[in-house]
Amino acid sequence: TIVMMCGLQGSGKTTTCGKLAAYLKRQNRSVMLAAADLQRPAAVEQLETIASMVRDQAPGGGTVHFHGEPDKCAAYGSAVGVAVEVCRNALKAAREKDVDTLILDTAGRLHVNEDLMKELRQVNSTLQPHHIMLVVDAMTGQDAVNSAKAFHEQLKVDGVILTKFDSDTRGGAAISVKKVTGAPIRFLGVGEKIDALEEFHADRMAGRILGMGDVVSLVERAQQEVSEEEAERLQDKMMKGEMGMDDFLKQLKTLRRMGPMKQLLGMLPGVGQALKGLEFDEKELDRVEAMISSMTPAERSRPTDINNSRKKRIARGSGNEQQAVGQLVKQFNQVNKLTKQLSGMGTRDKVNAVRGLGSMDMLPGVSGLPQLRSGRGTKSGGRSYKKRRR
């Protein structure tokens, strides 16, 4: 299978080639990344580095190969016909290595021009790829629609990948691009990491645009990071109130691998509106990790034993204030105590207890979280509206 990737410079095309390779590697596919972008300086070297990252870091049982000819980039400069030769050589190498998917990283431009289109048309007619994927920056709005239209008129794009979807955008560009090209949106780029690529689902996207969240995608991300056995083990420790700082640190790192905290919370139904006024400081998560890493194994397993002298030592070791260490320990012990109490509560009591977490600020790096309040007719701002008696 030959996949031809095209798009404007700055859209994240080369990085997306690597993400697609990582996605296929998880499915035990054999992939080759071919550097056919001979126009942009260091583009060949960049793709080679990305291929190495996918090979060494991405999970899965598939294999990843790379084909690049940087000497031709140096020799011919902007000559159009060279990319076709490189793609042809890559196809030959892929067949020799028995690769089932060849991904061509073609040249992009700062704007659509005839030279770019001529080169892409030559690659298309020579190799006749099975799929032509257009990589579009979701943050560019109407510009994304215009470039998608221009590429589709020349190449008949049959798939779109929206990048930078982890930004504040909710995906309105997805609808416009789909309408202009008629091509389905295949994937979404949801982060900078090599595995931050997820399949596009129209119903889930509708939920995000309408502020209804996307629980299914959130669950799928969690399943990729945490095994069922590990989740059951942690749940058992939480219900017994025996969760240690090591467990908390492990879960914190898992959450960070899943994506930015604001993006994860935005996938929960009804939370999107509340997130508008929130400030997220990802560096606060680094400080929390530093504090836990500065604790001894005994302190991590029994945080209740951490006294003031220990807090002072932990603060010095992690480069934080003693007050910050004390706050972390206090909040952790409160949550540990609460989760133990939950195991003996009924459903209504559990809901009321969890509502109390709204005032405990147990999300590192999140400020301005509105406190959840119980009672009918109560808004998130805390005002209660009742009917006046006439």
Write a structural description:
The chain has 390 residues and is an alpha/beta fold. The protein has 2 domains: 2-200, Rossmann fold; 241-365, Orthogonal Bundle (434 Repressor (Amino-terminal Domain)), CATH 1.10.260. The chain is 51% helix and 12% strand. It is built from 17 helices and 10 strands. The strands form 2 sheets. It has an 8-stranded mixed sheet with strand order 3-2-4-1-5-6-7-8, sandwiched between helices. A two-stranded antiparallel sheet has the order 9-10. Strand 5, helix 6 and strand 6 form a beta-alpha-beta unit. Helix 15 crosses helix 16 (322-342). The radius of gyration is 25 Å and the shape is elongated. The chain starts with a strand and ends in a 23-residue tail after the last strand. The model is unreliable at 365-390 (pLDDT under 50).
Quick structural overview:
The chain is an alpha/beta fold and 390 residues long. It is built from 17 helices and ten strands.
